[in-house]
Amino acid sequence: STFKFYIDGHNFTVISTDFVPIKPYVTNILNINIGQRYNIIVHADQPIGDYWMRADNQNACARITQALDIKGIVHYNGGPMSTPTSSGYNYTGACVDEPYASIVPIVPLNAMAANKEIDETVVIATNAQNLYRWYLDGTTFQSQFDDPTLYGILKNGSVPNYSGDLAIEVPELGEWVYIVIESPIPLPHPIHLHGHDFFILGEGRGTYNAASSPALNLVNPPRRDVALLPAAGYLVLAFVTDNPGVWLMHCHIGWHTSMGFALQIIENLANIRSTIDDTCMVTEVCDAWNKYAGLDSTSGIGNENSTINGTTSNSNGGTSSRQIMFDSGV
């Protein structure tokens, strides 16, 4: 869901978004989505007393029980140290990011024209087993704990075989990759990329059209690693290929990821091995997991986010192999 964070009666200064330092700006309510991080300086300039600190769930995104009762208490020294009686701010409930005009990185970096563009349309549909899955351009992502991509690269020096288009190779360094994500469904999604801070070039309602949509912002646009795909809208992101690795990009709503809303970017395959200090450690851990997990069906250990036999249904009823780089939990 989306939350509005604030402390009754107080302002604060926002100084970073997802650890990217920005030009400070002052607000009294912070819009925060799943996976996002902010550094703020609270202005403790109110009369000595006790105040509610609130994280109001926005029911327009997802309803929860007691959505407005997610609270902590801020006590001033010398105050009564009692249950606050302060009142919350009035606002219009909405599923939004912080205004992008407010997020101005201190270190200015401009975006360049795309060397590669990735377009993904997000829909939800049933698969051959009549289970609901998220699909990106007709393919749903399924993690394979018995054959993660990085493991295959380190063991064999090549990318495992894939079906579909959710393992995207960008072999060259120093190139600009644009990712255009669109969804006709009236539900927002926090989009997270591992391995990079991305540039937020544009977002809006409806579908993106380079000729008719508002011009992309290439001049020191916001940089962070989680941005909100608007409900029934689009998001245009960009990054530079400067970090060899296998990077997951996914909706940060956990059960949406489990339902297939993810893809992975295999960046500069030729140099991935050289960035890892101890490739034996990685492969030995995976070998040990395979043995422990009982792929010989002796232990009975499984994972609801994976399939042991290595196949999943795609939108046309066939099967497709899916590999994944493990999410660190960030």
Short description:
With 330 residues, the chain is mainly beta. It contains 4 helices and 20 strands.
Layout: helices, strands, pairs:
Elements (H helix, E strand, L loop, with lengths): L1 E6 L4 E6 L2 E8 L2 E4 L4 E5 L7 E8 L13 E5 L40 E11 L5 E5 L12 H8 L10 E4 L5 E7 L6 E5 L4 E8 L17 E2 L1 E4 L3 E8 L4 E7 L2 H5 L3 E6 L1 H4 L6 H15 L18 E2 L5 E2 L10
Parallel strand pairs: 8-11, 10-18
Antiparallel strand pairs: 1-4, 1-6, 2-3, 2-5, 6-7, 8-9, 11-16, 12-15, 12-17, 13-14, 13-16, 17-18, 19-20
Provide structural commentary.
Residues 2-76, 156-268 form the Plastocyanin-like domain. This is Laccase. InterPro entries: Cu-oxidase_2nd (IPR001117), Cu-oxidase_C (IPR011706), Cu-oxidase_fam (IPR045087), Cupredoxin (IPR008972). The protein is mainly β and 330 residues long. It is 10% helix and 34% strand. The protein is built from 4 helices and 20 strands. The strands form 5 sheets. It has a 6-stranded mixed sheet, with no helix packed on it. A 5-stranded mixed sheet has the order 10-18-17-12-15. Strands 4-1-6-7 form a 4-stranded antiparallel sheet, with no helix packed on it. The longest helix is centred in the last third of the chain and has 15 residues, at 279-293. Mean pLDDT is 87; it is low at 306-330.
Q: What distinguishing features does this structure have?
A:
330 residues; mainly beta; 6-stranded mixed beta sheet; 4 helices; 10% helix; globular; disordered C terminus
